[in-house]
Specification:
The structure is a homodimer of 281-residue chains. The first copy, chain A, is built from 9 helices and 13 strands. With 281 residues, chain A is α/β, with parallel strands linked by helices. Chain A folds into 2 domains: 126 residues, Rossmann fold; 141 residues, Cytidine Deaminase, domain 2 (3-Layer(aba) Sandwich). In chain A, the strands form 3 sheets. In chain A, strands 6-13-11-9-7-8 form a 6-stranded mixed beta sheet, sandwiched between helices. In chain A, strands 3-2-1-4-5 form a 5-stranded parallel beta sheet, with helices on both faces. The radius of gyration of chain A is 20 Å and the shape is globular. The termini of chain A are far apart. The interface between A and B is medium-sized, with 35 and 34 residues.
């Protein structure tokens, strides 16, 4: 038979699982989707072929094998699980045993164990970034608004974001006029942006006089196949509300949701979007 | 004449200026107090002998010299000044010129320039920590509740706090079960504690099952004469509300407001307070 074997998709929360489904819908490649219960957004529930609890990886493996899946993509966020309430099967126990024997640090520990499990079961892992790579590279200035007046904040925000990534704290930082306004840890980018808006006008920018740059970079030690930082229209909107001047990210190190909408929104608000390449670093 | 020359006190916000006044009230040493307008808490306004704007350091110098002051202590916080609204005298201009020529980083830049100015004017700077040093050293466990079950979080919180201090981001970090829940930047400890309380119960502790440690350490590069991290009953209360298990700090690197009240409150809430010494580091 000539049909391609389906790609297995394990879906957590957020828009990204849906974007992969959409991207592959137009291709010859079928997708077999397994949603993590309680994580997949309600609007996409109908796109799931099967459901698992986070503690039921063996079930996911069995389902994948029945469907002839050889390659798996794992995408979307998961809430940090409450181990006490997990209903563990053998595959889930495999993960939990390893989770407890590792020093549990950072946000991607759980997903990276899921990935380890599927690799150990003989699947090949496909990165979400590979499937979603944009037609044109996200290099340099993507917007009408220039970042030139904000170069210093941009450099410092990237420096801070890299450092806190290496410490496994998070992936984002905000700097305005040399001052660190926020460092992202477990609360996430949206919550960080919301609290910048609550700071006094004397330290942050305003919609009338924008100041401050959000930097998003992958943690150097993280597995780029599962856990790249994501940016989307919500991030641009949050940055606009917080009075920021722009967003800087690694050109090949983020996943963009609705790139065109992001650029349009940024232009409307007068924000810049800038993709760093290795030459800028 | 045998009277001691008065100590000059430049007071910003918070309880610490008042604690110095109180401490010296019982001694033979008179104090000449100069409050920074808009910073000194209303309750202590009557304790000020004179007032200056943050841009009027020359006036402060003149007043100090008239009173025979040779030693100056600078204590309390200042809001980041809006340069446009400052009414600058020559001393203020001296500071602003230097502030603008430096890469303005971190929180203590303004106070450290005030200190530079008074040093350049021939005053000796006395550290608040020296004046407020407690009768017994703040070493080790100060509370009935032990930190033993939280040693790992304690170590990681201290590690993170040191790193973010070295990067001039801030002085505090919160870690619970290995996960960084918060990194303090310009928002301050109280705001950081408040937002920990908004995180899901699955990542943070609760009043019934406390988890997580707040670490406060001085930035390695900061001038300990002016800008040690401060802890007080409000910090203990905030930590209790956020479900934390305890607070760790450098035994000789923090200023405690109302130490006895802090210990009593911590004991009542079941929190630990632990002062790290060089042997623990």
């Amino acid at each position: 038979m000539s049909a391609l074997p389906p790609l297995g998709l394990i879906a957590g929360n957020g828009m990204l699982p849906y974007r992969i489904i959409e991207t592959l819908r137009g291709s010859a490649r079928p997708v077999f989707t397994v949603g993590i219960s309680g994580e997949v957004d309600d609007g996409f529930a109908d796109d799931m072929h099967a459901w698992i609890g986070l503690g039921q990886l063996q079930r996911a493996r069995d389902l994948m094998q029945q469907e002839g899946v050889r390659e798996v993509v794992i995408v979307g966020g998961v809430q940090r699980p409450n181990l006490a309430t997990l209903d563990l099967d053998e595959g889930g126990a495999w993960v939990v045993e390893r989770a407890l024997s590792k020093a549990q640090r950072g946000d991607n520990a759980v997903l990276s164990l899921v990935l380890d499990y599927f690799e150990a079961q003989g699947f090949e892992i496909v990165s979400a970034a590979e499937l979603l790579s944009p037609a044109t590279p996200l290099q340099g200035l993507l917007t009408d608004t220039d970042m030139a007046p904000h170069r210093q904040d941009m450099a410092r925000a990237v420096e801070i974001a890299r450092h806190i990534g290496a410490l496994d704290i998070g992936q984002g930082a905000i700097v305005a006029r040399g001052i660190v306004l926020g460092v992202e840890s477990v609360e996430g980018t949206d919550a960080m942006l919301a609290r910048i808006g609550e700071l006094s006008d004397e330290v942050r920018g305003t919609q009338a006089a924008r100041a401050g740059v959000l930097a998003k970079v992958p943690k150097p030690q993280q597995d780029r196949r599962i856990d790249l930082p994501a940016l989307g229209p919500q991030t641009v909107e949050g940055a606009a509300q917080a009075g920021l001047a722009g967003i800087v990210f690694e050109a090949d190190g983020v996943l963009f949701e609705a790139l065109d909408a992001c650029i349009a929104r940024a232009n409307r608000e007068g924000l810049f979007l800038f993709g760093l390449t290795t030459e800028d670093l």
